[in-house]
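WARN retry 2 of 3 for item q-0093 after timeout on previous attempt; input resubmitted unchanged.
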Amino acid sequence: MVPPAVLRRLGEICGPAHVAADATTRGVYRPTAAGFFDADADEVTPGAVVAPSSAAEVTAVLTACAETETPWAVRGAGTALTAAAPHSAAAATEGGVLIVLTRMRRILAIDRTRGEVRVQPGVSARAVCEAVAPGHVFWPGRHGRPVGTVGGALATDARGPTGPVHGTVADHVLGVELALTNGGLITLRRDEPGYDLIGGLGGSAGTLGIVVSLDLRIASAPASTRTLSASFTTLAEAVAASGTVLRAGVTPTAMEVIDSIALTALARAGAAPWRDDAGAVLLLELDGAPADTLLALETTARLCAREQAQDIQIAADGIERRALWDAHATLPAVLRRVSPAVTGSQLTVGPSRLPALLERIGRLTRSHRLPVSLQVRGGDGSVRAVISHEPTASGVARARALSAAIGEAGRSLAATIDGGTIDGDASAGKFRVLRALQEAFSSDATAAPARPAPEDRPPRPSASAVPVTPVTPATPVTPATAAELVEVLRAAAAAGRPLRIAGAGTKGRWGTARRHDGQALLATGGLTRIGAVDPLARTVTVDAGVRLGDLQRSLAPGGLTVALDPPAADRATLGGILATGDCGPLSHRYGPAQAQVRALTAALADGTILSVGEDRHENNTTPGLHRLFCGSYGTLGVILSLTLTLTPVPERTATATAVATDPDRLVAAATALDRSALGLRALDLAWRTGRGGLLAQCAGVNAREQAGRAAAVMADAGLSDPEVSEADTALWERQRLGQRSSGRALVWVSLPAPRMGDLLTLADRADATVVGRAARGIAYLELDPARLPVLAAGWPAGAVAELRDRPAGVSLGGPDELWRGTSAAALRLMRALKARLDPDGICNPGLFVGGI
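OK item q-0093 returned
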């Protein structure tokens, strides 16, 4: 139990009414109190429950727990049914303090111009979506459950119905305030140069600290939305129809399959908008330009009819659409209501493996003689299994045995995702990184991020156990397989010899060009395997050394592409692109380079294998670790292979252009375009000596018509010479080339998009040319190195920067100062993480932010 003195202190912090230690209240917060049994959690009861209402109260509670050595855990609304969920973590320690965040449910600020919303962690994702409607949308909240919180969704890296297209909540978090375990409070921003620490928070289940506020990205609402549901005789038929839709090139924003058990439960609860005799229902939504959405809707309806759908409904308006998705959102609660108790688990195998998984689950259900409701997400091939059972010890044991068997069936299928193996336990690498993160975020690490003591470091491999050609400074090594590369790492670690890791060397002047004694070049360009395309998941797994241009050419016959378009695509390797976070104009619509990564396999400095990502987990267990390696400049390890998201090649493209001499007018036009619901594929600017222009690319069957509307928006905003071009390849290639420099300095800048006009004015003073993402606040400035002091003296508020292509000896300020804007707190965390994953400085030492 929690000592009375601690309870009194908590009452002083949050108020006595918000601290409870009586048996009834504590029992309510047991993981199974509402009849939900986690497949992996133990049944424990918190010793006390405390509900803070502010960041100050959270930090004070954590300080009190730290000073009294009282264990604690955190919980949101308790809606998840997975092992990493808040309700599981909340019961991590019998008798500890449970910190419940449901009082922290305020939306603090909405900035539609910047496309950001600041919220407390107890706000529901749906509430955020409703608050920014109708002009904007928070994708993770669309069609989510009414009470699921954004804090809990980040803690579990949750993927709502729109997840297969728009990613997890973590992908939409721009910044956080994080209360550390010692009661300290730090701020992290996604746009700061450095490791993606916010991405690392995704799926951490509150073990790295407590998020007390979040800055969320919102997007312009699509111009057209259509929802269709189709009833089928069996679950297998509905899943097969979802695969047929994907094979036809249709990209639903959300696509869910509901089985007969769930439909019966909805009918009993009086909440079923579908026919009573359906064996399963396919529910999907389509967004985009009106003409494209209508074509996709007609195609989907035709395909469902061909797949023997019993009934097809098309929502006539927003009210009907909301009714369909509300019914889906209530499923967990409805299933619990009609069952004595339920045990839930979730796993991902990919859409292509769904039929085989469902067949195996069917056999297991029959042999275990327990009813299992399956909700299937067709877009990413994930399955949520909800097992109904008696709430007795034997009933729970039977349900957990069935859940374990389902999990094993999923793992055996998911093991075939990559094709090919590497010696080594990938789980060992995952737990190494998890431990390193936890230690880095601990109070000691943030206060004094020293190198770990020798006894805490992983054992260094024995040199005699590594039969590999010696790595020397005069011997660049280009392994032909991942296994060979791992052996090189082990040999270097055994010898304590640092490595300079690169792909094709196209970004050799990025980062601190600091050399160390004995440093040798390890090139990944020999890893060139391109795996088979999964046409349903729309993914492909490739080796890190594959050149982007080669991959795009291999995908072209199937009408697919990777939404990556950095410069030098014919030479740049995918591992190098992702390790540096390099991207091009398509990032306006598709996000940063890491957003295209579904999963990755990497090797840590000592050769330990790590395989993580959205296709590498069950029960939402630490899927966010793959984000740490993207943009890390190879300082945490070597990317070996990547599973990438594919998108259909657009049927047509057209680009609207216009010019201006007033920077603020240019920025105002970009803002208007971004908020116009035109669904632009790219929106760029170019600026040189007091004159610039906008480029807006539209895609789809009516691309030229859409581009004409974009040109009209530009004209209405006061830009001159609006034009539309369907032969737009050269326009965009020129933009990409502007992201590189030949002999001059090139500075990457990120800043609030409304401040872009200030940056263009500064660029004129520095005699710099500019290209960039007009509505995303990303710019590339090329200038004479002698003019860099002009930039350093006039940065707009909120600007962060990185000096890239540069002559030797050039910096943004002091010696070796190549980055601007990384906070001291973030830098401490990054150094602590580096010291724990690479204590001997094997991987690209000194190359990254702060000399990491």
